[in-house]
Write a structure and sequence with these properties.
- With 65 residues, this protein is mainly alpha-helical.
- The protein has one domain (8-63).
- The chain contains three helices and two strands, in the order H-H-E-H-E.
- The protein has a two-stranded parallel sheet.
- Helix 1 (8-22) crosses helix 2 (28-38).
- It is globular, with a radius of gyration of 11 Å.
Length: 65
C-alpha cells in the first residue's frame, strides 16, 4: 500500500472546519479526515468514532477490525 505525505498547511484550515462541524474541541483527529478528503483517499481506521465521523462527512472510510 503506497504511503503519501500530505502537505500539512493545506489540511489545517479544513481540519478546523471539520472539528467545529463535528463539535470536537480538538482538531487532531480531524487532520486525518481533512487529509483523506483533500486527497480523495479512503480512510482506514480502527476507531469506530472516526469511522462514523468520516461517513457523516461523506469521506470513504473502512473500519479495520
Amino acid at each position: 500500500m503506497p504511503v503519501r505525505l500530505v502537505h500539512a498547511l493545506e489540511s489545517y484550515p479544513r481540519a478546523f472546519d471539520i472539528a467545529r462541524s463535528l463539535g470536537w474541541k480538538k482538531a487532531y483527529d480531524a487532520l486525518y479526515l481533512a487529509a483523506a478528503e483533500l486527497e480523495d483517499a479512503e480512510l482506514l481506521t480502527v476507531d469506530g468514532g472516526m469511522h462514523d465521523a468520516a461517513r457523516r462527512l461523506s469521506i470513504r472510510a473502512t473500519l479495520v477490525r
